[in-house]
Amino acid sequence: MKFYEIKDPYYALIAAEDEKQCLKLYKDIVCEVEDEKEFF
């Protein structure tokens, strides 16, 4: 389990197994992601 700190467009600290799971959680809970390639 790793922690991912997202600062833009909305702050989130997400605990996930990998970047794919982190992206899914962010999209489901926080907001949509326009450019997934530049997300991290």
Describe this structure in words.
The chain is built from 1 helix and 2 strands; from the N terminus they run ββα. With about 40 residues, it is α+β, with helices and mostly antiparallel strands. A hairpin with a 5-residue loop joins β1 and β2. The relative contact order is 0.24. Helices cover about 30% and strands about 25% of the residues. It has one domain.
Summed up, the domain count is 1
Largest beta sheet: strand ordering: 1-2
**Poorly predicted spans:** none
Radius of gyration: 9 Å
- Number of helix segments? 1
pLDDT averaged residue by residue: 94
Strand content: 25-35%
End-to-end separation: 17 Å
Helix and strand pattern: EEH
> The biggest beta sheet, please?
2 strands, antiparallel
Structural class comes to alpha+beta
Subunit organisation of the chains: single chain
Gross morphology: globular
> What is the number of strand segments?
2
Q: Percent range for helical residues?
A: 25-40%
Secondary structure elements and pairings:
Layout: E1 2-6, E2 12-16, H1 19-29
Antiparallel strand pairs: 1-2
Condensed summary:
The protein has about 40 residues and is of the alpha+beta class.
